[in-house]
Amino acid sequence: MSEVQDRKFDYDYDGIQEYDNPLPRWWVYLFIGTVIFAVVYIPYYHFGGGKLPGAQWAEDMTEWRRLHPPVPLPDEAELLALAAQPGLPERGRQIFATRCVSCHGVDGGGQVGPNLTDDYSIHGWSREIVARVVNDGVPAKGMIAWGDRLSRDDVLAVALHAYSLRGTTPSNAKAPQGEPIAAVAKAGDHGTAGAH
Ligand code: HEC
Question: What is the DSSP code (8-state) at residue 180?
Answer without folding.
Answer: E
